[in-house]
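User: Hi! I have a protein structure encoded as tokens and I'd like to know what sequence might fold into it. I'm fairly new to this, so please keep things simple.
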């Protein structure tokens, strides 16, 4: 059990430590503010295309760390992921980054921090030091010569002045005792209030993400329709035309020599078989029939059994999901296994499929990990969520997985330090 006096002292020490850290970080904030003031006027000239994104990346990082410090002090929960800035950007993208709500929040925090953090840090140091100095130094005034008296708030040349100095030190101590926790609370809550997105901003960002996902899904759908049309035109249709031609030739041959019609009928049968195989392949790419026959767990087992790299599969706790979600999960897993086989140089792959319930929704979770070389990254234009790469591949493979997940409001996260191991995680919201 912590005694009230001890708890109160620990609260003051914690507040002073928080204010001291913020005062120290004030130097970084001031340097960033000066750099921003110098660089931003050059943005319309195109000079800032390289330094401004780096500046915004630094601002974003400082804001994230300040938010983490404030959340740790107040024991608050930050319920959202901050944006990650990386990659090269065009002039329009840089302008959009500068005017984005997140950048405005980060810039507002920077001004707030530069204005108040130094003052708070100085008070956190000055008030306790002044209290200790005034209380303990004043009684020693007789040791100082008359021509060089003890100088504190005023020259201490008598016991009356020493008593006044001690009282002033006590006042400093009481002020610090009362003021420092209040300052720490105001600075931490102000930081969280500025950096946390407003409800309107959250909804706007969600609408933008959903609009982008919808546009990506429509583009992918149109491309898929063109692919199916091309496969039917170049594959099944040509083979069916061949069937018709072979049957026509067989009919003509049968009128004069029935035996001569047999080769044409055989060739027609071969063409019909090839056309049927092409149709099955086209239909499989639209919706794999194995999902209806065996479910997602069975379909995943079939995929992993065909992988050239040994795979383990864990489907414990997997529930049936809507057909569209299971189809997306199937193709996500197929693409992940294909990319791992092509690029990871792994000796084993682990696959986990399960259902997770989180507040407000249920998730179908696909996890693919390997012991390969790692070191690749999600393309920045398509990354959803956060991550630093994957040994599964960099480029169209992960981009396709990210787009497929985003079409359902899902997320793709990958972690892959250079040298591995690699883990890919896709969360697909669904209503079970």
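Assistant: Happy to help. Inverse folding works backwards from shape to sequence: for each of the 432 positions I chose a residue that suits the local structure. Here it is:
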């Amino acid at each position: 059990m912590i005694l009230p006096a001890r708890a109160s002292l620990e609260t003051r020490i914690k507040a002073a430590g928080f204010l001291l850290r913020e005062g120290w970080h004030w130097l970084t904030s001031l340097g960033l503010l000066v750099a921003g003031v110098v660089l931003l006027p050059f943005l319309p000239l195109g000079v800032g295309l390289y330094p401004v994104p780096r500046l915004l990346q630094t601002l974003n990082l400082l804001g994230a760390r300040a938010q983490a410090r404030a959340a740790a002090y107040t024991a608050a929960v930050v319920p959202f992921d901050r944006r990650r800035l990386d990659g090269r950007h065009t002039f329009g993208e840089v302008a959009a980054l500068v005017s984005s709500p997140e950048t405005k929040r980060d810039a507002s925090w920077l001004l707030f921090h530069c204005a108040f953090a130094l003052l708070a840090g100085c008070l956190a140091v000055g008030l306790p030091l002044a209290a200790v100095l005034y209380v303990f130094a004043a009684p020693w005034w007789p040791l100082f010569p008359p021509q060089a008296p003890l100088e504190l708030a005023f020259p201490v040349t008598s016991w009356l002045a020493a008593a006044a100095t001690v009282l002033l030190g006590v006042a400093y101590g009481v002020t610090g005792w009362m003021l420092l926790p209040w300052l720490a609370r105001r600075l931490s809550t102000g930081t969280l209030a500025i950096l946390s997105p407003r409800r309107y901003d959250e909804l706007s960002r969600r609408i933008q993400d959903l609009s982008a996902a919808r546009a990506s899904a429509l583009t992918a759908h149109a491309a898929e329709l063109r692919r199916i049309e091309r496969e039917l035109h170049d594959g099944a249709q040509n083979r069916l035309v061949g069937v018709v031609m072979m049957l026509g030739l067989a009919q003509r041959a049968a009128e004069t020599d029935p035996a001569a019609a047999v080769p044409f009928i055989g060739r027609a049968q071969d063409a019909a078989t090839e056309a049927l195989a092409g149709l099955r392949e086209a239909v499989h790419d639209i919706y794999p029939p194995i999902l209806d026959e065996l479910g997602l767990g069975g379909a995943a087992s079939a995929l992993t059994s065909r992988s050239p790299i040994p795979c383990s599969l864990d489907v414990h706790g997997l529930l049936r999901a809507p057909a569209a979600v299971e189809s997306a999960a199937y193709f996500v897993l197929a693409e992940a296994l294909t990319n791992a086989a092509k690029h990871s140089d792994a000796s084993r792959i682990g696959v986990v499929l399960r259902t997770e319930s989180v507040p407000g929704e249920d998730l179908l979770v696909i996890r693919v990990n390997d012991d390969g070389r790692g070191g690749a990254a999600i393309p920045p234009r398509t990354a959803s969520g956060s991550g630093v790469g994957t040994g599964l591949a960099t480029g169209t493979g992960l981009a396709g997985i990210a787009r497929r997940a985003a079409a359902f409001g899902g997320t793709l996260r990958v972690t892959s330090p250079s040298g591995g191991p690699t883990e890919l995680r896709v969360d697909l919201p669904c209503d079970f």
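A useful reference point when you look it over: The beta strands are 150-151, 155-156, 311-314, 349-358, 361-370, 411-415, 422-430. Feel free to ask if any position seems puzzling.
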